[in-house]
Design brief:
By secondary structure, the chain is mostly helical. Helix content is 79%, strand content 0%.
Length: 268
């Protein structure tokens, strides 16, 4: 099967599953609040500041600025669907065609226009005549580096997920102290206010941890697995080009690798 027939998806396409999940989370929260008939009862500025502010301050202390910016970028990426590699496979086959025709200049020009930095580097190494062992070492290092960066982003969100319930407990303790302090005064309104802070802080911590931070971490980890699989497919293609295989063989092998990888991902 021709590489041009492989499935292509734009990297800017919205991830419908993610949007449905977030919408479902909002509906769930609305249902919990509306079931008691008073949505405003679940809004408490003090509890929100304790939990959200505490998590924010802890993140600023624990992580560097570039790590936080990378995490924000990763958060935005979960709303986009995975890009297909049909375009990359077509570019790979085209460079292979130039190389089998011994047209090195055309191969270099085409490789320079490849949008994927990973594939562009691999093909440039092939054109430069890099030995196979060195090529494998360099490209596998690039894959490991990408995996390390994205794993760090997932760990950041898992850390925030662990911190959120702790600050919920802090808000609970602060609310309990305020409540106990007002017991002697007999002011039921003040006692109720302290109880509200105590209960809602715990609620906010649980929501932030289990409906926001943990799902984001899982989404990033799954995306990393798919990207590693994709890069390994492209690496196999680069190796075939380095071995001097024909464009037809490269295209068929890429489609076979792509189908096999999709089947493996579905079974995970």
């Amino acid at each position: 099967m021709s590489a041009s027939k492989s499935v292509r998806r734009s990297s800017g396409q919205i991830s419908l599953v993610t949007v449905i999940g977030l919408t479902g989370a909002l509906v769930l929260l609305w249902f919990v609040a509306a079931s008691e008939g008073d949505l405003l009862a679940y809004l408490n500025l003090t509890a929100f500041i304790i939990v959200f502010g505490g998590v924010t301050v802890s993140a600023l202390i624990a992580f560097q600025g570039r790590e936080l910016l990378a995490a924000l970028h990763a958060f935005g990426a979960i709303f986009r669907g995975d890009a297909g590699i049909g375009a990359e496979i077509a570019e790979l086959v085209e460079v292979a065609r130039h190389l089998t025709q011994k047209n090195i200049h055309a191969a270099e020009e085409r490789a320079a226009r490849i949008t994927s930095p990973f594939l562009r580097l691999g093909l440039q190494l092939v054109i430069d005549g890099t030995p196979m062992d060195d090529l494998m070492h360099i490209m596998n290092w690039r894959i490991r580096k990408m995996a390390e960066i994205e794993s760090a982003q997932a760990r950041l969100f898992r850390t925030l997920a662990a911190l959120a319930p702790g600050f919920g407990l802090l808000g609970t303790l602060a609310g309990m102290v305020a409540m106990l302090r007002e017991l002697g005064s007999g002011d039921i309104a003040r006692v109720g206010s302290g109880m509200a802070v105590a209960m809602l802080a715990t609620l906010y911590g649980v929501v932030l941890s289990n409906l926001i931070f943990k799902p984001i971490a899982i989404k990033i980890e799954q995306r990393t697995q798919r990207r590693i699989a994709t890069l390994n497919i492209l690496l196999e293609g680069v190796m075939l080009v380095s071995l001097g295989r024909s464009p037809t063989v490269v295209a068929d092998a890429m489609q076979a690798f792509l189908n096999e990888t999709r089947d493996e991902i579905r079974t995970i």
